[in-house]
Amino acid sequence: MKLILTVDTEADNQWNVGAELTTDNLSYVPRFQALCEHFEFPPTYLCTYEVVTSALFKGTLGQPARDGHAEIGAHLHPWSTPPFDATWDDVDRGHPYPSELPTELLQSKLRTLTATLGDRLGQAPTSYRAGRWGFSPAQVLSLVRLGYLVDCSITPLVSWVADIGLRGGGPDFRKAPLAPYGLSQRDVCQTGNSGLLEVPVTILHTSALMRRSHLVRSMFRRHRRSIPMRAADRFLRLAPQWFRPYPGMSAERLITVYEAANAFGLPAVEMMLHSSELMPGASPYNRTPAAVDDLFHRLERTFAHLVSRGVEGMTLTEFARSHSPIGPRESKPLL
To answer: Residue 175 pairs with which residues in a beta bridge?
Structure first.
């Protein structure tokens, strides 16, 4: 089993539409990097344009990457990446999904972000995540042409259709495989031979009842907002569980997600978080220093368990170069 740590490395408070593009949270990355190096789990920092062009980038992110202790990839936020188009980049109206953009504008922004990262790093990035999980088939071919090897934008069992971007909802990934797979150019939830590997965020059912019964899963999806189903979810954890250190996601719950992934036979687990979660008040999740300290405590306990189970750390590109999605578990949904 491999551990892949992905960090959406972006401006402060990007949940607030129209928020100023400050990158103070980068000053808090070294503490996280030190924790990762202690456990020998190299993170992959997926960076937005404002981060790459920040004066803090070289000292906080560039050095670990140069030393081989981290990877720097690309994270496309359309609202902060040039070229800008008034129709699609009105930050006061909303944050668009990359999947909403016209193809030409999308490709131009991808080229800008890729070239800027290449200039700052001295080499082109090879890993990618779409902002707001807004991945689409149009991005697959563009990424391959730009030399990318791996994407990590897919959130299995999760739909973003009800979450409005600038004009419409986001993608629906409920039918995507749980395990890494070669992407199709036509449907990002299907396997294909595009040349781009998908490493989905680890999201799965830890409830044995949900894993075993298609009927129960269907009932939960239809009625999950009802009071009885929400009560059942609180006690039985019926909803898909993310390998993500949300507030309230204890180390024990994170370990349970890992153990379920291990039981499924997944070749890797992928954890994600935001760089802004490392700074008090820079995200909705950790508003105080005590909350950030609690995050680190939970990460340390989880990492220690993974080490005890023989898990090895890899960056996204390292995994992509070592992985061949040829077995049935890598090419088919597990639910």
So the answer is: none
Q: Do 41 and 61 have their domain in common?
A: yes
CA distance 202 to 269: 6
The average pLDDT across 282-296 equals 97
Q: Are 320 and 199 in contact (CB under 8 A)?
A: yes
93 and 26 in one domain? Answer: yes
User: Of 313 and 92, which is predicted with more confidence?
Assistant: 313
User: Whole domain around residue 92: which residue ranges?
Assistant: 2-205+241-331
Residues 253, 213, single domain; the answer is: no
Whole-prediction pTM: 0.92
- Same domain as 162, residue 224: no
Q: What is the number of other CB atoms lying within 10 angstroms of the CB of residue 288? A: 10
How far, CA to CA in Å, does 128 sit from each of 49, 162, 235? 13, 24, 36
Q: Specify the amino acid at residue 199.
A: V
DSSP state of 131: G
184 and 264, same domain (yes or no):
yes
Amino acid symbol at 31: R
Query: Backbone dihedral region of 35: left (phi > 0), alpha (psi from -120 to 50 degrees) or beta?
Result: alpha
Q: Which amino acid is at 141?
A: L
